[in-house]
Amino acid sequence: MPDTKQPAKAEPQKWLQPDGDPISCEESILVLRENLIEIEDICQEALEDAVLMDVSEKQFREVLHDMVEKLANPYKKG
Fold this sequence. Notes:
The protein is mostly helical. The chain has one domain (8-71). Helices cover 51% and strands 0% of the residues. It has two helices and no strands. Helix 1 (26-52) packs antiparallel against helix 2. The longest helix is centred in the middle third of the chain and has 27 residues, at 26-52.
């Protein structure tokens, strides 16, 4: 389990609900933080592997960005 005392590198100052109100549930914030820290760690390791295998850093970052853009929201309304 990652250390959740410190915010993740990419963590926003506050998490927002779809209506723009801030999330106030501390447990939800800790779960989001833990998930971000785990994702950061995995992405960092994958980037290091790619660079060591002589893959273009720029291309690898583009692939990660594209992967995030293509994530599906199974709870999307409408």
